[in-house]
C-alpha cells in the first residue's frame, strides 16, 4: 500500500523537486498571505501541525507564536532540507520535522491548528482534500472533538469560458496554460462572467467527487476554445471585519477538444466532473460545452407556461 501511494504521489506531484521550492518561496502572493493568515490564527502557546511541510517555511511562520509545531514531510530529501533550513532561523527549534506520510500521521497530542498546502488549481493533482478528510476521521477517532482549525479554511472554485489563441509563431498548439491573475493578454478573451461551481469548507465533511452543470450568457461573439478554472483559497476568515485573507492560484485554461462558435446573448451549457486530487486530463476529458440559443430557451419556457 505504501509503495503504491509513493508511486502515485510522485506521479501526481507530491514530491516537488527542491529547485521548484525556490519558486514557491519567491511567490510573494503565496508567502505574504499565508504569513498573514498564520499570524492571525496561531495564538501564543498554540500547538500546530503542518501536513506536507516542504521547506518548513509555513511551520516557521507558525513557530513565531506557537509553543510547538509538528512538521510532517514524506519526501526524505525535503525532510533533510527543512531541518537544515529551520536550524538557520530563529524559532526553528520549536519545529519538529517528522519523516512520515500525511495520510497516516497523527500528532502525539491534540493540536489547535492544522496547516496544509497541497493545493493545485481546481484541487487537482495534489491531495489536499483527501489528506484533510482522512486526517479528520483519524483525529476524531484518537482524540475526539473538537477538530482543530484548518489553514486554509475553505476553497472557492469558479469556471469561465474563454476564446484562447493557440498560435505559437504560426504553430497551432492547443495546450494547457497557467495564467497570471489580473494580467492582460490579447490572446485571451473572456466570453462570459465566471460561475461558481464548488465551495470546499474544511470544517465540514467534503465529497471527493466534484461535478457541475451550468450555463453562461455569452457577452460577446467569438469561439469558445477553452475553459478557465479559478481557485481562491480562503486562508483565514476575519469575523470581526467580515473579511478574509485569500490566496488566489494562477488561472488554469484547458482547451476544448472541439471549439464552439457563439453569438452575443447565447446560452452556453457547460458540464464536467472529476475527483479531487485526480489528474488534469480527467477533468479535461469530461468537459462538455453546448450552445443553446436564447430564442430556443424562451420558446421552451413559453410552451411550459401555456401547455
What's the structural blueprint in terms of helices and strands?
Elements: H1 2-11, H2 18-26, H3 28-41, E1 47-51, H4 57-63, E2 68-73, H5 76-87, E3 95-99, E4 113-116, H6 128-143, E5 149-151, E6 154-164, E7 167-168, E8 171-172, E9 177-179, E10 188-190, E11 195-201, E12 209-217, E13 222-238, E14 243-248, E15 251-262, E16 267-275, H7 280-286, E17 288-292, H8 294-306
Parallel strand pairs: 1-2, 1-4, 2-3, 4-5
Antiparallel strand pairs: 6-10, 6-11, 6-13, 7-8, 9-15, 12-16, 13-14, 13-15, 16-17
Which key features would you list for this structure?
307 residues; alpha+beta; Rossmann fold; Hnrnp arginine n-methyltransferase1; seven-stranded antiparallel β-sheet; five-stranded parallel β-sheet; 36% strand; elongated; disordered N terminus; disordered C terminus; histone methyltransferase activity; methyltransferase; Arg_MeTrfase
